[in-house]
């Protein structure tokens, strides 16, 4: 199949700068968590549940100056086309977890919650590219739902480079064939809370890839904001009655 | 699966494709997102609407409209038309689609393109280049992504039916869509599938045609009619052709996959013996020895070069490789193409059976006479049960005169006849033509369409005529085609990439300020090449430094200054891979303007160069090396001979001559070092054909002679290549373009050593431990009575060697980089960028390595480098074969006028013939037993490599390998293949 | 939530009444209301999710793989992941053992048959996202739904490959795939086994005890139901796995036969209710939340 045809269409029919279907819901697990969300980015599906801020189980986990963010990621065995048993301590997962924790320690106003822990549980139900981006967006929404103070949205998207054409929001087939850059954009700014490049990309092309990434991130932010407002209005209407 | 559609805020509609992928026996459910859009234009210049919906690509460019506003008119209907084709039309009639006389303004639905890609990648690439070139106005319409043409798969609809329906939908939509802008346009749907045609009619697509009917609608139908491929219309072969024989059916795909997995079936490339067309071998990983495939039934329609699936035969059918020569013309040349059915009910015909029986007799006698030796040579045999990839391409041949029956002059209807191919390991091909009579005696190009199991011979169609047999033009074109050499003139796209100044381009005077080039115009640079050389890609200089060391520079034409990556020029060069040198013709890799002018390091003018400059000590050790892009001005262009004379002339004491003497001195030291390290000096019977400059008729044949200056240039080129290889490997450990030469496997030398031991017991055996020991042992193999014997042995050793190959450094470990023949640890090609693409890549990588400019992505990407390398390896090999074939042809022409008696050497012995090499002409030829003497008296002793027979004077003669013999050489034309070759008659 | 001694005593006293007074006012044989969704994982052959009102949630996926029968010890493999518990913990191991055992012994394996050498193997992966009470019933009901909605690709190559090895090939059309229930022999119904947990308080038997009830039970029973009857094994267990339950004690064997009768009476309804969920579940309906 042609990953990017000379006619300018990608393998799933999108053009170079188009997002996949992005759907999100917050407050999906009101009874089992303080904040929760579910996002679908194309066929990637992620559940996020947030507990806290709460007192840590172990003293050693508490930091007198700020909250600790603990992220645990479960990637379901059935999330990929070929079923694969995954171990919790897989290197890739540990790295992913560290990347995410660092991203959100900078984006959440941790100083407001000293001596607490914020526990984030991620369940990845289906993967079709953009795993890190999907998880990041799910956590952002989960934290917002839990009412945890943040500086702004962290909206994340992946982008790649096919020959000289930057492509936005890669699916698995595309991700397998090109190096992928995932970024997390802060709000409507051009600041990045997250930047992860797998494999390598020529420096002279990086700018164009970053540019569509940031534009894509802004669109994701708007879609998430719409959902947060929708849910907020729903809650508000119940209070008023 | 009917998936729900969902409209997104971005204007796209998303749905999903759900299907089962069964690969490697698995059954995986696959779900993919599928986006539908409404901004895919129809690409027609007639259309008024699509211009409003365009979306730009990442460079801000909008799609261009290709389909003409005034396409060709149909003969009868008179209306202008576009064409929509289905998959089988493309797969079977790609030649016709590429033909310049028909098929303009063609719409290829994405569905079709994808099916084509899955079925045949080469044809997909040809379609893609048709679309790219614009000349024939082909467009790809992504129907599956367009809201107006996407259709959901119906319940219980097979994927074929669904695809057909999607394609019809495209034709329908186009017709309706264009109707709104222009009432005169028709969109024709072309398919040869009756069912599909029928459905099209019922669905209201009025303009559905099969190919034959469509061609009839065209004004130039007469020219085109014969070019319609055979498989594309059902009634093409009369029923008498069917059921003339029956090959075993191929195994089903699932059985093949199962068998490959459990190890009962094997896959490999079929290699038909060039001495016996009924014998093929397949090398598979599981066995040390190749599997033998004997007889047409076991070969089961396999072509030489096909990737086939084979199954072993029971052990009692295992055989030794045959020692008999069987050529196809012996057996079936006089068959009539239309009625060979009757006697073919039994599978083997009598002639085949006799030959096979003869084989069997030999087999049994050999087994009884020699007690144990015979069994060790038994080779497992196998039969072909499937073909995974056909090697079918264009073939060149001629119509077998005997297959054109007498009643061919009656009527204008097409008749079957056979085409005998130039490549004698391939079967003849049955074609249908109305012009059989006219084509007799012509070299023609044919394509193979199919080989049904009921047909004794493959079926094909006529493509075009090259000209009369034995005319130089036809033969040259034939051999270029046979070796897949692209020889068409460069396209406009390519030529547009050249500097606009053309021949008047000069080195800009401000280069010192605008580029990082070094000014080397003061160096005493000169070039040494064969006489008459116009593409000078290397030049040299030398001087003595104040510290007593030498400064030596090699300057290579800076081709990459003109050939920038990702241009049409670059991709053309990459696909040609190398220039091809024929006796009377040169097929350039890059356009003339670059090769013979702008890049050529001509004397007395300034040129851009890529220079390697060493500081060498007295013993030619490297003290320092520098690489730079530069500007040089060559002082003189010498021929080897002129340079040699100037060096040898003691009266010449000018600076330039002095520096050449320094070069010569150093080059001898370099050569000695190389030889000490074990570099091989192998030989091949290289000859040169002198052309009469008036008539351009070949005059005489001469063995190339070598001067000291030849080796001077060669040494420094090797030296530069090695230095560059180290540098680019250092900078690009994964993707550096390198060249390796693997040591020969011991089995290759087994037979040769056996022959030596038996025939020349006094000679030491050839040792393979290292290239050094091989070189030494070859040196020791001297026959004082016959100085040529050593050369003969070198020629035969060369044939046992592996071929050197290009590779990106990431594909092998460092120890395997070794170049066995040159005895160096690392090597590349850097010094001839005008005529080799490898050197172009090496230039770019070196420029990147020294920080002159950024290296293009494609040369930093391992998988892209693999693709480049695969292609240039193939092109390099083909160019060599084509060059040899060209020499062979001309040698044949020369001998036509010079019949003579010559000395020859026996290099191979069979039970019904011998192969003799004649050093004078560099030709080798087979002398069959019938031409040696009494066939029945012949006795072949396999262990001694000897053939004993009574000659025509009833004298007993014994001839064995390495024997020096006297032969009469003359050239005869083979009436069947139309090939002229050397005929040798033993004296 | 861990109950205080006073709460425990109050709850115990109300449960031992005749009939028992359950805190959520269920009758003894009533299940907690559940909400289910099936066939929502695109890349699985079958899937289901069950949620209870207290936030307990379980997702089950069934994936099929073609295997050589000779190389597999079992054609069904279960894997359970309980959020917050280690994979090698006792809690998870016991759940996994129970479910694997139940399915391996009570499943019409012939529906998985492909050829004489090849067969499908089912990988059943359960993900317990959150739970309060003992999750075995939750797991087993979700598994039931997932299996009922499992579809297997249609084999198009030869069924008999005992003589000549053939690699199985399948129709690429997902619409041609078959539900497991379409592959069982015509006179029997495809109905995977399920687990029912019962709580024992006095001689009251309580279906589907909640986490609060679990903390005061005198004993817990795990029974299984397959093909319209109760099957062995029947085991007892302390359902309150993470709190010490001082009420836990031995049990009157008569209660076992009583439980059998109860299951006979109500399990048919439970299974029908589950089948009803599948029927009314529209697979093409949007997201799962």
From TrEMBL, chain A:
<feature type="domain" description="Exoribonuclease phosphorolytic">
    <location>
        <begin position="152"/>
        <end position="215"/>
    </location>
</feature>
<dbReference type="Pfam" id="PF03725">
    <property type="entry name" value="RNase_PH_C"/>
</dbReference>
<dbReference type="GO" id="GO:0003723">
    <property type="term" value="F:RNA binding"/>
</dbReference>
<dbReference type="InterPro" id="IPR050080">
    <property type="entry name" value="RNase_PH"/>
</dbReference>
<comment type="similarity">
    <text>Belongs to the RNase PH family.</text>
</comment>
<dbReference type="GO" id="GO:0016075">
    <property type="term" value="P:rRNA catabolic process"/>
</dbReference>
<protein>
    <recommendedName>
        <fullName>Ribosomal RNA-processing protein 41</fullName>
    </recommendedName>
</protein>
<dbReference type="Pfam" id="PF01138">
    <property type="entry name" value="RNase_PH"/>
</dbReference>
<keyword id="KW-0963">Cytoplasm</keyword>
<dbReference type="InterPro" id="IPR015847">
    <property type="entry name" value="ExoRNase_PH_dom2"/>
</dbReference>
<dbReference type="GO" id="GO:0071051">
    <property type="term" value="P:poly(A)-dependent snoRNA 3'-end processing"/>
</dbReference>
<dbReference type="GO" id="GO:0071038">
    <property type="term" value="P:TRAMP-dependent tRNA surveillance pathway"/>
</dbReference>
<dbReference type="GO" id="GO:0000467">
    <property type="term" value="P:exonucleolytic trimming to generate mature 3'-end of 5.8S rRNA from tricistronic rRNA transcript (SSU-rRNA, 5.8S rRNA, LSU-rRNA)"/>
</dbReference>
<dbReference type="GO" id="GO:0071028">
    <property type="term" value="P:nuclear mRNA surveillance"/>
</dbReference>
<comment type="subunit">
    <text>Component of the RNA exosome complex. Specifically part of the catalytically inactive RNA exosome core complex (Exo-9) which may associate with the catalytic subunits RRP6 and DIS3 in cytoplasmic- and nuclear-specific RNA exosome complex forms. Exo-9 is formed by a hexameric base ring of RNase PH domain-containing subunits and a cap ring consisting of CSL4, RRP4 and RRP40.</text>
</comment>
TrEMBL record, chain B:
<dbReference type="InterPro" id="IPR002716">
    <property type="entry name" value="PIN_dom"/>
</dbReference>
<dbReference type="InterPro" id="IPR050180">
    <property type="entry name" value="RNR_Ribonuclease"/>
</dbReference>
<keyword id="KW-0378">Hydrolase</keyword>
<dbReference type="InterPro" id="IPR033771">
    <property type="entry name" value="Rrp44_CSD1"/>
</dbReference>
<dbReference type="GO" id="GO:0003723">
    <property type="term" value="F:RNA binding"/>
</dbReference>
<dbReference type="InterPro" id="IPR022966">
    <property type="entry name" value="RNase_II/R_CS"/>
</dbReference>
<dbReference type="GO" id="GO:0071031">
    <property type="term" value="P:nuclear mRNA surveillance of mRNA 3'-end processing"/>
</dbReference>
<dbReference type="InterPro" id="IPR041505">
    <property type="entry name" value="Dis3_CSD2"/>
</dbReference>
<keyword id="KW-0694">RNA-binding</keyword>
<dbReference type="GO" id="GO:0071034">
    <property type="term" value="P:CUT catabolic process"/>
</dbReference>
<dbReference type="InterPro" id="IPR012340">
    <property type="entry name" value="NA-bd_OB-fold"/>
</dbReference>
<keyword id="KW-0963">Cytoplasm</keyword>
<keyword id="KW-0269">Exonuclease</keyword>
<dbReference type="InterPro" id="IPR001900">
    <property type="entry name" value="RNase_II/R"/>
</dbReference>
<dbReference type="GO" id="GO:0005730">
    <property type="term" value="C:nucleolus"/>
</dbReference>
UniProtKB/TrEMBL annotation, chain C:
<dbReference type="GO" id="GO:0005730">
    <property type="term" value="C:nucleolus"/>
</dbReference>
<dbReference type="GO" id="GO:0035925">
    <property type="term" value="F:mRNA 3'-UTR AU-rich region binding"/>
</dbReference>
<keyword id="KW-0271">Exosome</keyword>
<dbReference type="InterPro" id="IPR020568">
    <property type="entry name" value="Ribosomal_Su5_D2-typ_SF"/>
</dbReference>
<dbReference type="InterPro" id="IPR001247">
    <property type="entry name" value="ExoRNase_PH_dom1"/>
</dbReference>
<dbReference type="GO" id="GO:0034473">
    <property type="term" value="P:U1 snRNA 3'-end processing"/>
</dbReference>
<dbReference type="InterPro" id="IPR027408">
    <property type="entry name" value="PNPase/RNase_PH_dom_sf"/>
</dbReference>
<dbReference type="GO" id="GO:0000176">
    <property type="term" value="C:nuclear exosome (RNase complex)"/>
</dbReference>
<dbReference type="GO" id="GO:0071035">
    <property type="term" value="P:nuclear polyadenylation-dependent rRNA catabolic process"/>
</dbReference>
<dbReference type="Pfam" id="PF01138">
    <property type="entry name" value="RNase_PH"/>
</dbReference>
<comment type="similarity">
    <text>Belongs to the RNase PH family.</text>
</comment>
<dbReference type="InterPro" id="IPR036345">
    <property type="entry name" value="ExoRNase_PH_dom2_sf"/>
</dbReference>
<dbReference type="GO" id="GO:0071028">
    <property type="term" value="P:nuclear mRNA surveillance"/>
</dbReference>
<dbReference type="GO" id="GO:0016075">
    <property type="term" value="P:rRNA catabolic process"/>
</dbReference>
<protein>
    <recommendedName>
        <fullName>Ribosomal RNA-processing protein 42</fullName>
    </recommendedName>
</protein>
């Amino acid at each position: 199949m042609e990953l990017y045809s000379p006619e300018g269409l990608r393998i799933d029919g999108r053009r170079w700068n188009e997002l996949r279907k992005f759907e999100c819901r917050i407050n999906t697990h009101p009874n089992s968590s303080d904040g929760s969300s579910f996002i679908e980015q194309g066929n990637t599906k992620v559940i996020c549940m947030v507990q806290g801020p709460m007192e840590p189980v172990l003293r050693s986990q508490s930091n007198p100056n700020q909250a600790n963010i603990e992220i645990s990621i479960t990637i379901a065995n059935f999330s990929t086309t070929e079923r694969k048993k995954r171990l919790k301590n897989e290197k890739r997962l540990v790295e992913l977890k560290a990347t995410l924790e660092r991203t959100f320690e900078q984006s959440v106003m941790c100083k407001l919650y000293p001596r607490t822990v914020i526990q984030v549980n991620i369940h990845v139900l289906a993967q079709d590219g953009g795993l890190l981006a999907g998880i990041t967006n799910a956590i952002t929404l989960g934290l917002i739902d839990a009412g945890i103070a943040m500086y702004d949205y962290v909206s994340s998207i992946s982008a790649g480079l096919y020959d000289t054409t930057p492509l936005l929001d890669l699916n698995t087939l595309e991700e397998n064939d090109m190096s992928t850059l995932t970024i997390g954009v802060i709000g409507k700014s051009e600041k990045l809370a997250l930047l992860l490049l797998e494999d390598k990309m020529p420096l002279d092309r990086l700018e164009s890839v970053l540019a569509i990434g940031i534009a894509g991130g802004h669109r994701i932010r708007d879609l998430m904001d719409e959902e947060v407002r929708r849910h907020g209005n729903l809650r508000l209407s119940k209070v008023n009655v | 699966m009917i998936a729900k559609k969902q409209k997104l805020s971005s204007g796209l509609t998303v749905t999903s494709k759900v299907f089962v992928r069964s690969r490697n026996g698995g059954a995986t459910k696959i779900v993919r997102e599928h986006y539908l859009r409404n901004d895919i234009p129809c690409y027609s210049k007639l259309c008024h609407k699509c211009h409003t919906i365009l979306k730009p690509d990442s460079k801000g460019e909008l799609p261009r409209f290709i389909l003409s506003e005034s396409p060709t008119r149909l003969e009868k209907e008179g209306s202008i038309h576009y064409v929509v084709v289905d998959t089988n039309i493309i797969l079977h009639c790609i030649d016709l689609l590429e033909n310049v006389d028909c098929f303009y303004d063609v719409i290829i639905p994405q569905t079709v393109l994808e099916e084509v890609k899955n079925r045949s990648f080469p044809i997909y690439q040809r379609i893609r280049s048709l679309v790219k070139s614009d000349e024939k106005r082909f467009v790809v319409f992504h129907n599956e992504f367009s809201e107006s043409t996407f259709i959901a798969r119906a319940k219980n609809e097979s994927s074929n039916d669904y695809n057909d329906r999607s394609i019809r939908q495209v034709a329908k939509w186009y017709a309706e869509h264009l109707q709104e802008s222009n009432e005169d346009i028709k969109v024709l749907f072309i398919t040869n599938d009756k069912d599909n045609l029928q459905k099209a009619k019922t669905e209201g697509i009025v303009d559905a045609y099969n190919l034959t009917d469509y061609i009839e609608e065209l004004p130039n139908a007469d020219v085109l009619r014969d070019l319609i491929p055979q498989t594309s219309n059902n009634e093409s072969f009369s029923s008498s052709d069917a059921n003339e024989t029956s090959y075993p059916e191929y195994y089903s795909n699932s059985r093949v996959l199962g068998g490959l997995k459990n190890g009962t079936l094997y896959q490999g490339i079929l290699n038909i013996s060039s001495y016996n067309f009924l014998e093929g071998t397949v090398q598979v990983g599981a066995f040390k020895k190749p599997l033998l495939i004997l007889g047409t039934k076991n070969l089961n329609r396999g072509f030489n070069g096909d990737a086939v699936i084979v199954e072993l035969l029971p052990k009692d059918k295992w055989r030794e490789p045959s020692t008999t020569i069987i050529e196809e013309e012996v057996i079936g040349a006089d068959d009539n193409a239309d009625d060979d059915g009757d006697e073919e009910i039994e599978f083997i015909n009598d002639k085949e059976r006799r030959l096979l029986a003869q084989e069997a007799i030999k087999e049994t006698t050999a087994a009884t006479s020699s007690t144990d030796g015979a069994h060790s040579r038994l080779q497992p045999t196998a039969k072909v049960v499937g073909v995974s990839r056909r090697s079918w391409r264009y073939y060149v041949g001629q119509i077998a005169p005997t297959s054109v029956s007498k009643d061919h002059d009656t009527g204008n209807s097409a008749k079957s006849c056979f085409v005998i191919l130039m490549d004698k390991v391939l079967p003849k091909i049955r074609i249908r033509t109305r012009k059989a009579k006219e084509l007799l005696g012509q070299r023609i190009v044919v394509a193979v369409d199919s080989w049904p199991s009921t047909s004794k011979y493959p079926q094909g169609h006529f493509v075009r005529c090259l000209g009369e047999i034995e005319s130089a033009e036809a033969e040259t074109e034939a051999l270029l085609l046979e070796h897949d050499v692209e020889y068409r003139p460069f396209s406009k796209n390519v030529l547009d990439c050249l500097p606009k100044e053309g021949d008047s381009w000069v080195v800009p005077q401000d280069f010192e300020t605008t580029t990082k080039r070094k000014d080397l115009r003061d160096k005493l640079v000169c070039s040494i090449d064969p006489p008459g050389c116009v593409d000078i890609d290397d030049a040299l200089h030398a001087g003595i430094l104040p510290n007593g060391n030498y400064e030596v520079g090699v300057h290579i034409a800076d081709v990459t200054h003109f050939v920038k990556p990702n241009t049409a020029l670059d991709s053309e060069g990459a696909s040609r891979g190398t220039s091809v040198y024929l006796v009377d013709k040169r097929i350039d890799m890059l356009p003339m303007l670059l090769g013979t002018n702008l890049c050529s390091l001509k004397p007395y003018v300034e040129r851009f160069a890529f220079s390697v400059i060493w500081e060498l000590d007295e013993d030619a050790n490297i003290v320092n090396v520098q690489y730079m892009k530069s500007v040089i001005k060559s002082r003189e262009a010498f021929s080897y001979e002129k340079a040699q004379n100037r060096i040898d002339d003691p009266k010449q004491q000018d600076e330039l001559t002095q520096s050449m003497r320094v070069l010569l001195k150093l080059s001898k030291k370099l050569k000695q070092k190389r030889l000490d390290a074990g570099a091989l000096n192998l030989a091949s019977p290289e000859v040169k054909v002198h052309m009469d400059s008036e008539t351009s008729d070949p005059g005489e044949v001469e063995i190339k002679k070598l001067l000291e200056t030849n080796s001077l240039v060669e040494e420094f080129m090797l030296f530069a290549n090695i230095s560059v290889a180290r540098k680019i490997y250092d900078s690009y450990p994964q993707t550096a373009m390198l060249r390796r030469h693997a040591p020969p496997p011991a089995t290759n030398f087994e037979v040769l050593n056996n022959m030596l031991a038996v025939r020349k017991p006094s000679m030491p055996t050839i040792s393979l431990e290292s290239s050094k020991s091989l070189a030494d042992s070859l040196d020791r193999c001297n026959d004082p009575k016959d100085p040529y014997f050593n050369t003969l042995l070198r020629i035969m050793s060369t044939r046992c060697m592996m071929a050197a190959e290009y590779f990106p450094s990431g594909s092998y470990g460092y120890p395997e980089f070794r170049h066995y023949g040159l005895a160096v640890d690392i090597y590349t090609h850097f010094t001839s960028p005008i005529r080799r693409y490898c050197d172009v890549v090496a230039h770019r990588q070196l420029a990147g390595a020294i920080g002159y400019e950024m290296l293009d992505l494609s040369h930093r990407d391992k998988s892209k480098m693999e693709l480049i390398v695969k292609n240039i390896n193939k092109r390099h090999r083909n160019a060599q074969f084509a060059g040899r074939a060209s020499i062979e042809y001309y040698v044949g022409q020369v001998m036509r006028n010079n019949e003579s008696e010559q000395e020859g050497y026996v290099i191979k012995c069979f039970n019904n013939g011998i192969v003799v090499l004649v050093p004078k002409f560099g030709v080798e030829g087979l002398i069959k037993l019938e031409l040696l003497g009494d066939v029945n008296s012949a006795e072949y002793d396999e262990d001694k490599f000897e053939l004993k027979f009574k000659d025509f004077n009833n004298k007993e003669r014994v001839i064995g390998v390495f024997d020096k013999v006297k032969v009469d050489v003359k050239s005869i034309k083979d009436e069947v293949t139309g090939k002229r070759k050397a005929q040798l008659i033993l004296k | 939530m861990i109950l205080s001694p006073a709460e425990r005593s109050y709850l115990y006293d109300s449960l031992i009444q005749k009939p028992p007074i359950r805190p959520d006012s269920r009758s003894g044989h009533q299940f907690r209301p559940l909400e289910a969704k099936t066939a929502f994982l695109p890349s699985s052959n079958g899937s289901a999710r069950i949620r209870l009102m207290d936030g307990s949630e379980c997702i089950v996926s069934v994936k099929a793989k073609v295997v050589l029968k000779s190389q597999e010890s079992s054609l069904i493999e279960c894997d359970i992941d309980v959020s917050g518990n280690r994979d090698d913990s006792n809690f998870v191991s016991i759940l996994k053992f129970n479910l694997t055992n139940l399915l391996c012994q009570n499943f019409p394996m012939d529906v998985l048959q492909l050829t004489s050498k090849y067969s499908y193997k089912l990988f059943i992966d359960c993900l317990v996202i959150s739970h309060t009470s003992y999750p075995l019933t939750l797991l087993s009901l979700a598994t039931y739904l997932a299996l009922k909605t499992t579809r297997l690709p249609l084999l198009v190559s030869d069924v008999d490959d005992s003589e000549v090895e053939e690699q199985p090939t399948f129709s690429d059309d997902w619409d041609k795939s078959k539900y497991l229930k379409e592959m069982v022999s015509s006179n029997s119904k495809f109905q995977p086994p399920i687990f029912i947990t019962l709580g024992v308080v006095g001689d009251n038997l309580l279906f589907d005890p909640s986490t609060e009830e679990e903390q005061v039970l005198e004993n817990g029973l795990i029974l299984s139901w397959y093909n319209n009857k109760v099957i062995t094994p029947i085991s007892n267990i302390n359902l309150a796995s993470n709190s010490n339950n001082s009420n836990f004690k031995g049990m009157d064997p008569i209660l076992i036969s009583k439980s059998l009768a109860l299951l006979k009476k109500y399990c048919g309804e439970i299974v029908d209710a589950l089948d009803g969920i599948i029927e009314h579940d529209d697979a093409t309906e949007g997201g799962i939340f």
